[in-house]
Design a protein that fits this description.
This protein has 17 helices and 32 strands. The radius of gyration is 28 Å and the shape is globular. Helix content is 24%, strand content 27%. The strands form eight sheets. It has a six-stranded mixed beta sheet with strand order 23-22-21-24-25-26, with helices on both faces. A five-stranded antiparallel beta sheet has the order 17-28-30-20-19. Strands 18, 27, 29, 31 and 32 form a five-stranded antiparallel beta sheet that branches.
Length: 694
């Protein structure tokens, strides 16, 4: 009897446990791995549910016996039983066949062929492209216009006559067309055009600025990625070659904590673009990810880690990793900030992935501000102006309201904006705080000071004030990476590329302190390789960060900055002494100089020296670290960094890839995925797989 009672008790308890609700979390993505914001998650048979956020994330309370329904307009609904799962990741497949083309006009819905006035259209193909973040920006829906009452929710139209009596501005798939190319657009095959919206002179000028004073025609093609030319610009990169240790034992470079290249490449792959090799900066790809380096414990603001392993892509070379870990400070420990937002509101910023995304990104930063922090906002288009005087972080609503009122239009006087922003930052300078200008732009300066050299001279002059500069790049089609990198480098700051809200959350959320608070400036690294052990070496990446050997001890030479919590990783591939390599060519013997190798350090592979300055000082401090000639087993962090480096080499069509394939990158990355708390490494693997399928 007692046994039966115990069995009954266990059964009751198990039923109760099974009936208890628990939190289920996960993501909803499309077939390409991109998040689906606003997807619906419902518990089947109930009215209880939730939606995904901008990054496709959701959470819902459910029981073991519940079935979750995942749905999104234009996609096939999925069912998943909860069971014992705590995380449910769902990929929805497009169901374009169920979507019919709809045209919204005035206060109702009509068939497209019956319309004679300008209308906004929404098709199945457009919905699919929009959710996959392809090229199509749907500018006609992004500008200010008259909301439709009735019809489809969220779609807006323009009620205007098409009186285009001057040369109009054409905008095709979100990109303004130069007027000298209008004849190409005018002869665009009618079968290629999905929709067309016309604005008369007055309406176009109001919406798009003086550039559209002759009216505007917004065209969407069926493909959604029509381009006459690509005006994105990148500084030319010449890949580092192997250097013979006997001829050049020293390797000197500035650190680089910029991460723009990785998010920019991610954008290109997600949009199916051809990747310009000069857009690939391997060091920025590697440094996009965090690695498990130990926190500093001594007097210096960063720790040093070095190690040597066998090169994953070449069995006759070794791979050296040098890692820095900046000291991490909690938000409340950071000094008061005097921030000046410098925001580009010119006509080129009209696209959804520019000013609208920019405003949402900056709101993430505003939400982190404390009462002791102050924010000013300067905007520039044809001219520059102050739209918010210094305001305490206590008044977040006022700052957000100012951001919400920003609109785009006009040309781009970037130089004037920088002058005004620095002037305002200097006027409100906090002697014991963090003084920084945060520039957000696509970099397309075309009025006043605009050339790379002119901007470089301007920023070099302004940095003497003690105000640091962070540069955030937005958009595509006319993105000026080369200019923005110069601004950040010369302005004692960092450069990031914001391609979506996930990246904004990373820059302004997870890495808030590192983005805004510098713990060491002008950080330089110099390695002396031991010719007893190393026949030749090459630095992977950092091509535009190389310094002359004498620059290492020259405190007047500018170098990179390290922020709170930032990590920096550099990789070298080395050829050991005695190894025959096709990468090395014979060199004639020297007549007047004889190399004499010191044999007293036969067990050392290299010595690495570091120099840095405290943020408010001008004299550098030197550190050094010795690496023994000891090969260790590779671990997850190094495997992953190697995978990223190898992928970058393949994108750059490097001659040092040694016939490796994308499959090699994926295998190496999977070995290095590790704990991957935030999912960035998993995203990289999906990205490489997407590139493989292009």
């Amino acid at each position: 009897m007692k046994t039966l009672f115990n069995m009954f008790l266990i059964l009751v308890i198990s039923i109760q446990v099974q009936a208890q609700e628990r939190k289920i979390v996960g993501t909803v993505t499309d077939e390409s791995g991109l998040p689906l914001p606003g997807a619906s998650i419902m518990i089947k048979g109930t009215n209880k549910g939730t939606q995904t956020d901008f990054d496709g994330l959701y959470e819902i309370k459910a029981k073991d016996t519940d079935v979750l329904l995942f749905s999104f307009v234009g996609y096939v609904t999925e069912e998943r039983k909860v069971g014992k799962l705590y995380t449910i990741l769902v990929t929805l497949k497009a169901d374009v066949s169920k979507l019919e083309e709809v045209v919204v006009v005035g206060y109702g819905i009509k068939n497209r062929r019956s319309l004679t006035n300008s209308v906004a259209t929404l098709t199945a193909s457009q919905l699919k492209r929009q959710k996959r973040k392809a090229y199509h920006n749907q500018l006609a829906y992004q500008i200010q216009s008259v909301p439709v009452q009735g019809g489809l929710t969220g779609v807006q139209i323009v009620n205007s006559n098409t009186n285009l009596n001057k040369t109009p501005l054409y905008i095709v798939d979100g990109i303004p067309i130069k007027k000298e190319h209008n004849h190409i657009i005018e002869n665009l095959p009618i079968n290629d055009i999905d929709s067309e919206v016309k604005y008369d002179n007055a309406e176009a000028k109001k919406k798009f600025g003086k550039i559209a004073k002759g009216g505007c025609i917004v065209i969407t093609t069926h493909q959604g990625n029509y381009r006459i030319e690509n005006s994105e610009s990148y500084a030319a990169i010449i890949e580092n070659a192997f250097e013979r240790t006997l001829l050049a034992p020293l390797s000197t470079f500035s650190i680089d904590v910029d991460k723009a290249s990785y998010s920019n490449i991610r954008r290109m792959i997600n949009n199916g673009m051809t990747i310009d090799p000069d857009a690939v900066k391997i060091e920025e790809m590697i440094n996009y990810f965090n690695y498990n380096y130990s926190q500093p414990t001594g007097e210096h603001p960063f720790s040093i880690t070095t190690e040597v392993v066998k090169t994953p892509w070449h069995n006759k070379t070794k791979l050296v990793r040098i890692g820095l870990q900046g000291k991490t400070f909690l938000n409340e420990e950071l000094p008061a900030s005097n921030l000046t937002f410098l925001i580009d509101v010119s006509g080129s910023m009209a696209d959804q992935n520019k000013l609208p995304l920019l405003k949402q990104a900056f709101k993430l930063l505003v939400n982190q501000l404390r009462e002791k922090d102050k924010v000013s906002i300067v905007v520039y288009a044809g001219a520059a102006g102050v739209v918010l005087e210094p305001t305490s972080g206590k008044y977040k609503e006022k700052i957000v309201e100012t951001l919400d009122h920003l609109q785009s239009g006009g040309s781009t006087a970037g130089g004037a904006g920088i002058e005004l922003a620095y002037k305002l930052a200097e006027k409100n300078f906090n002697k014991n705080g963090n003084n920084r200008v945060i520039l957000a732009t696509d970099g397309d300066f075309n009025v006043g000071t605009s050339s790379d050299k002119a901007m470089e001279r301007l920023i070099e002059e302004k940095r003497k004030s003690g105000v640091f500069l962070s540069v955030l790049g937005f958009g595509y089609g006319n993105y000026k990476d080369s200019k923005l990198e110069i601004l950040a480098d010369k302005g004692n700051g960092n450069h990031a590329y914001i391609d979506n809200m996930q990246e904004a959350q990373k820059v302004f959320g997870k890495e808030f302190g590192g983005t805004l608070f510098t713990i060491a400036k002008d950080v330089k690294i110099q390695i002396e390789f031991n010719p007893n052990k190393v026949q030749a070496y090459r630095l992977i990446g950092y091509e535009n960060r190389l310094l002359n050997d004498e620059d290492f001890i020259d405190d007047t030479k500018d170098a990179g900055e390290l922020g709170s919590g930032h990590t920096v990783t550099a990789l070298y591939e080395v050829i050991p002494v005695g190894v025959k390599s096709d990468y090395l060519k014979d060199v004639s013997d020297l007549k007047y100089t004889k190399s004499q190798i010191d044999s007293n350090f036969s067990n050392e592979l290299f010595t690495v020296k570091f120099r840095y300055k405290k943020p408010s000082e001008d004299k550098s401090i030197e550190m050094f670290h010795i690496q023994k000639d000891e090969i260790t087993l590779s671990h997850s962090d190094l495997n992953f960094a190697s995978a990223v480096a190898l992928f970058g080499m393949q994108l750059r069509q490097s001659k040092y890839c040694n016939d490796t394939t994308i499959d090699d990158v994926i295998a190496l990355a999977n070995m290095g995925r590790g704990k991957d708390k935030d999912g960035y490494r998993a995203e990289f693997i999906r990205l490489v797989q997407s590139y493989q399928n292009l």
